[in-house]
Specification:
The chain is α+β, with helices and mostly antiparallel strands and 88 residues long. The protein contains one helix and three strands. The protein has a three-stranded antiparallel beta sheet.
Amino acid sequence: MHATKHWNIAVEIDEHDGRTRAVASLRGDAGELVGIGLARCNPTDRDVPQIGDELATARALSELSHHLLGAAAQDIERVTQQPASPRI
């Protein structure tokens, strides 16, 4: 059987005192994985909120990808009974 699956990632971004935080959440069959990314404006730089959003989101997605890779490694090890070290 050929099936198409859809995974959705939600990203929430908030800003407080010159710091931006992004939380990327992936909900799937195995539960929820979350990655968090932070960014701050250098005091000598011009304040451009979009840049903080982009940096924080990229960092949150990067952390999320590492969590997902870890979950895959655990699943491989459970199935094969062998150590697994998948790489991106």
